Amino acid sequence: MIDSYKRKVNLEDNYDAIIIGSGMGSLTTAALLSKEGKKVLVLERHYTAGGFTHVFKRKGYEWDVGIHYIGEVQNLNSPIRKMFDYISNKNLKWEDMGDIYDRIIIGDKKYDFVKGVENFKNKLISYFPDESEAIKNYIQMIFECNKAMKKFYMEKTLPSFISFLFGSLFKKKYLKYSSKTTYEVISSLTQNQELIKVLTAQYGDYGLPPKQSSFAMHASVVKHYFNGGSFPVGGSSEIVKTINPVIERSKGKILIRAEVKKIIIKNKKAIGVLMEDGKKIFSDLIISGIGVFNTYNKLIDNELSLKYGFKSYLKSVNPSVAHGCLYIGLKGTAKDLKLPKHNLWIYPDKIDHDSLVANYLKDQEADFPLIYVSFPSAKDPSWNSRYPNTSTIDVITLLPYEAFAKWEGSSWKKREESYEKLKDSISKRLLSHLFKQLPHLKGCIDHYELSSPLTTKNFVNYQKGELYGLEHTPKRFSQKFLKPKTSIKGLYLTGQDIVSAGVSAALFSGLITASSITGINFMKKIYK
């Protein structure tokens, strides 16, 4: 059972490990350490655990805030599926989304991304018959980049002296891909701008358009979905529900409403945490899963953060993009409303992704650079038994934090009328795009509400409402400090900042953090 710190629950004076934050990286680290017999305390400031895997409920509906689809889990032998099975004791179940996982809509043209590498390749060639060689070379490059990734992340778990001696050999091949932008790589294969726009249409999954994003990040996302997408049966809250018993079995626990004020550091060593109410909890092992900006700017005294060079590290990286999500509730089942399982990626015609983003950042009245539509109730086979005769839709777009900065400091649900008016105008614009694709939904909507970057800041505690932690630029992948072990003894990092964007990357971050701490090859153990 997940309890609240505010209830003054019985806590031990000392734990084998204290983990700050309860996102996917933290939960994975906690589960792996728990399976090694360690008593782990996970501290979450929010009223619910899970980070971007949590759900919220309103007016008889439920929405997943971060999980829209996961790749590679239908293959029972894939590393991602093996890891999810291991940390949940095989209690987390998945539903396949079908042959089409993403539909790309550019103006009036539609392009389907279909599961299976050969199917994907042949479908793309059917759209672009003159580009068959470019498409084949593109797919080959996606695989080559991902093959090089294994050693790159393995290096992050090595002891410092081994990394110093041999680290460059582990990273060299991957950095060849990560140091180039997505556009640089793909435009070396083809000059067909429509094809480039289609191939990079999933950039919303990592937050940066092709001329800014690292090709390594792009390649990781593309390969992740080659064999289709899946959704957790019962919604994404099942992730915490199935991992929590694993943590409790080793006498650990997850606590909500448990805000950490500082990491206690003594004699160059992390020894515990100071809570907001002044209570101190001790451990020789402190793991932060709340991002490098929050960890180094908030949880470590400014003087120490400067002394260890953490402040200078942060100058070399930037927060990722902020977003807004329109959560929609409808009366009627997904079948009645003809809602698809696949996602929609909607773009204006004739303008490249980077120009669309630049235009929008200058003027928020310009076309949305991208609109992503997900149909979670259609993806989850348990939905109808849990919420009969209802459906949900998520509509997501880029929303710059700066457009909402003037309301910074105001409280959630208590912001002034001008804030609500801006949100309503954005909501209506997003609805018009939804109705253009699915006109029969007009009149079916029962409830809708828009989250803004301030909402994300409030609940996930990222300072500019960012969705993916750090920007996934070529520069980001060359930062040596983005690894689990810090220069403070006993202090480790986990989460998407030390790997890359998304739930599966955060899952993998938990594995490399736990491996770095224990020296155990968890992947080998998981496959036994």
Write down the Rg: 22 Å
CATH topology of the largest domain, by name, is: FAD/NAD(P)-binding domain
Low-pLDDT residue spans: none
What is the assigned CATH homologous superfamily of the largest domain? Answer: FAD/NAD(P)-binding domain
- Mind telling me the CATH class of the largest domain? Alpha Beta
Helix content: 25-40%
Mean pLDDT figure: 92
Count of separate DSSP helical elements: 19
At CATH level 2, the architecture of the largest domain is 3-Layer(bba) Sandwich
Question: What portion of the residues fall into strands of 2 or more residues?
Answer: 15-25%
Strand order of the largest sheet: 10-9-18-19-20-17-21
- Whole-number tally of structural domains: 3
Oligomeric composition of the shown chains: single chain
Q: How would you describe the shape?
A: globular
Sketch the major β-sheet: 7 strands, mixed
Number of strands: 22
> What distance lies between the first and last C-alpha atoms, to the nearest angstrom?
30 Å
SSE class: alpha/beta
Features:
20% strand; FAD/NAD(P)-binding domain; globular
